[in-house]
Amino acid sequence: MAGKDWVQLMAGLRSTLINKAAARSRQEAENFPEIVEQRRAKILAEIGAAEKLAFDPAMSDDAFWSRTCTKPFYAHRPVDRIRQHEAEMQARLGNYRDFLGTDWEPDTGRQFRAFLDEVMSERDYLEKVVKAARTLAQTKVARERTFMEWLLAGADPLSWEGRRKIYAKLASHLGYGAVTTFHLMMELGFAVVKPDQVLNRLVARMGIMTEYEVRNERTGTRRWHPVESNMTTAMARQLGQNDHFNWSLQRRMAEISKATGISMRALDIVIVKMGQVDDEANGYARTICGETPLCSLCEAKAFCDLGRTGTTKQGKRRHVPAI
Ligand code: SF4
User: Fold this and answer.
1) Across residues 73-92, what is the average pLDDT?
2) Based on the number of CB atoms within 10 Å of its own CB, is 238 exposed (0-12), middle (13-18) or buried (19 or more)?
3) In 10 A of CB 16, how many CB atoms?
4) Is the CB of 301 under 6 A from ligand 1?
5) Quick one: which atom of ligand 1 is closest to the CA of 275?
6) Is the CB of 203 under 6 A from ligand 1?
7) 177 closest CA partner among 320, 64, 74
8) Cβ of 289 below 6 Å from ligand 1
9) Which residues, 6+ apart, have CB-to-CB distance to 187 below 8 Å?
């Protein structure tokens, strides 16, 4: 796809979210225009906030930690459900200093064990968060600098090499998985997207990713691996663990960002919201590009591979009247 088509694809997706995802049906749009308008305003506000998200090298430790402490909970879960608990999680986990004493020593600390026992169902995630708090605080004590300064040391965030170093540093120190680490980087303002199951499935469907580069670091040879266009959720999830795919995806999205003038964060929001489960609290009353995509409603259809060709692995697309 050429740069001009990226512009039209993204404009079509954005317009579809605002005009179609905000209403459950044509009848609802006609009978309850005020409700639909309120949802549109929420969608526009979210996209606007994503467009404004700026990288801040002087970010405070508290701001850094508030983005870090809840990210593991979003892994493989519907975003609307986790978002409802964001304030609660921030109240409980939002101060990294709470986890620094010997009582919070992983595995042996009294408070650490009591905390995990109290909330057994979230044990893995909580364990990661407590360990991350302690690791970040230790780097601070040792070097007397902010978390962001620690992260940026020796890495230029504007270069690919720098972003890879930042990713590797976060992954090795915090122990979060690949998708969660990209999610955190994105929320910290770095120009990346998060390769979660929804984004991966949609970029394959749309023809944004048709292949990815596999580079042999030892020999320097490169080959191209095809991306399955009709991807199942399991395949999309697995792809998010593939380092080669993830970095090819970052480069492709950077290319689209450059062609369209839309930030990486906003690209992620616009594409993912097309395929995520309904999230009415935030204005998305209907999923347009879910398991069975509603292509007849989609204003990006002419610029999307699946929209043009017509079938998915799950079966024929459902046709509903356009509103
Ligand atoms: S698959 Fe259909 S609904 Fe999804 S982006 Fe393409 S045209 Fe739109």
Assistant:
1) 75
2) middle
3) 22
4) yes
5) 4
6) no
7) 74
8) yes
9) 53, 67, 71
Better-predicted residue by pLDDT, 276 or 141: 276
C-alpha–C-alpha distance, residues 320 and 25, integer Å: 9
Which mutation among 229, 294, 304, 309 tests ligand 1's pocket best, with the greatest number of atoms within 8 A of CB? 304
Q: How high is the pLDDT of residue 110? A: 79
261 membership: H or E segment, kind and range: none
Ligand 1: centre distance to CA 203 (Å): 10
Atom of ligand 1 nearest to the CA of 205: 1
The rounded Å distance from CA 308 to ligand 1 centre is 9
Instruction: Give residue 65's region: left, alpha or beta (phi > 0; psi -120 to 50).
Output: alpha
CA dist., res. 12 & res. 6, Å (int): 10
Model confidence at 225, pLDDT cuts 50, 70, 90, reads very high
Give percent of the chain above pLDDT 90: 60
Q: How many CA atoms lie less than 13 Å away from 78 in the CB half-sphere?
A: 12
Tell me how far apart the alpha carbons of residues 294 and 16 are, in angstroms, rounded to a whole number: 11
- Per-domain residue ranges for the chain? 3-54+194-316, 61-187
Question: Which pLDDT value is given to residue 119?
Answer: 59
Better-scored residue on pLDDT, 144 or 125:
125
Q: What DSSP string runs through 205-225?
A: HHTS-SEEEEE-TTT--EEEE
Question: Is 60 exceeded by the pLDDT of residue 316?
Answer: no
Whether ligand 1 lies within 6 angstroms of the CB of 288 is answered as yes
Question: Would you say 19 and 274 are in contact if contact means Cβ atoms under 8 Å apart?
Answer: no
Closest CA to 148 of 187, 99, 95: 187
Q: Which helix (H) or strand (E) holds 315?
A: strand 315-316
Q: What is the pLDDT of residues 285-307, one digit of tens each?
A: 999 999 889 999 999 999 999 99
